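Margin note: ligand = protoporphyrin IX containing FE.
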Amino acid sequence: MSDILERLRTETRAAHDAIERDLAWETRVANRDDYRALLGRFWGLHAVLEPALAASLGDAAFFDPRRRLAHLVADLRFLGFDDAAIGALPRPQLALPRHRAEAFGALYVLEGSTLGGQVIAKHIGRQLGLTAEGGCRYYAAHGRETGAMWKAFRLSLAEEASHGKADVIVASATATFDAMRLWLCGEPSRSS
Ligand code: HEM
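Resulting structure:
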């Protein structure tokens, strides 16, 4: 494992545990209405973060396959929202990534969420009868490409960290976890 990944894992473990605990995801996806509300929160997050990530990374070939806003739109439409309802969803006020190193820290959190997301997608399939083609595109994320996408991300992450920006990446990842938890869970419990 690269040093940066080891550091990220160790130094954001408490933040991951906190979001996993506070999200109470099984409750949030227990029925279609609650699940749609959760997707609405994710929509606000991605609507704010993705343009900033794209601008800071300046690498469409790398970032575009990692965009998930359109997946959220597809799911929300499937679950009955029209474009006006989607556009009116609330968006969080976040400290946005200002350059590549901060973008890599934030993207570590979003890309890492596709790993646990595979478990959640299976559960949603069983619980709500939804699939990647109908209502569960966001959680399905990279699907069978999940392993390959994570491996490619880790390589780019290690390359970025080799420019001496590891501290910035870790700080940005921690801040992103905490901001996500506050936005998705709405409760100010500290992660560390
Ligand atoms: C929005 C909430 C979440 C975010 C942002 C998030 C983020 C992450 C990140 C960044 C990693 C990568 C860790 C690493 O290898 O360096 C990860 C891994 C993982 N997460 Fe989460 N996570 C979230 C929620 C959850 C939940 C609710 C579960 C429970 C099902 C979960 C289960 C996992 C598992 C099992 C892995 C490890 C997968 C593997 O190593 O193959 N996560 N998550």
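The domain at 3-185 is CATH 1.20.910.10 (Heme Oxygenase; Chain A).
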